[in-house]
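To the wet lab folks,

You asked to see what we're planning to order before we commit. Fair enough. Below is the target structure as tokens, and below that is the sequence we designed to fit it. If anything looks off to you, flag it before the synthesis order goes out.
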């Protein structure tokens, strides 16, 4: 079955190209993650917002962005893989239908042969 892969705009693990024919997701990766409750935000007074505070905030913001980007990429890869598998499944179903038609044709041919010349 020759189904061309979609544009590889989605990077694979490690930043390599994403190929939906090769990438396999584990059951844990496909399982929905539980929704965690967020902790209540604690207001930090302006006088306590020192260099250490802003450094931690900056690091946390960067980590949150990386996490969101990674989740979005993984969700996109899963949907591309699902679409690829659906197309592959449809092509395989067509192959099976063609093979069944061919089998029926050969059975009919064999039945005609056996009717003329006796059973094999």
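Sequence we intend to order:
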């Amino acid at each position: 079955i020759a189904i061309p892969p979609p544009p590889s705009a989605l990077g694979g693990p490690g930043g390599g190209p994403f190929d939906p024919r090769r990438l396999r997701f584990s059951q844990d990766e496909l399982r929905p993650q539980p929704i965690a409750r967020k902790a209540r935000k604690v207001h930090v007074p302006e006088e306590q917002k020192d260099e250490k505070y802003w450094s931690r905030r900056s690091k946390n913001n960067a980590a949150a962005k990386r996490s969101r980007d990674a989740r979005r990429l993984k969700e996109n890869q899963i949907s591309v893989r699902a679409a690829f598998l659906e197309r592959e499944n449809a092509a395989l179903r067509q192959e099976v239908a063609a093979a069944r038609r061919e089998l029926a044709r050969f059975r009919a041919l064999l039945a005609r042969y056996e009717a003329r010349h006796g059973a094999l």
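Structural context that might help your review: DSSP finds two helices and no strands in the chain. Residues 51-117 form the longest helix (67 residues).

Thanks,
Computational group
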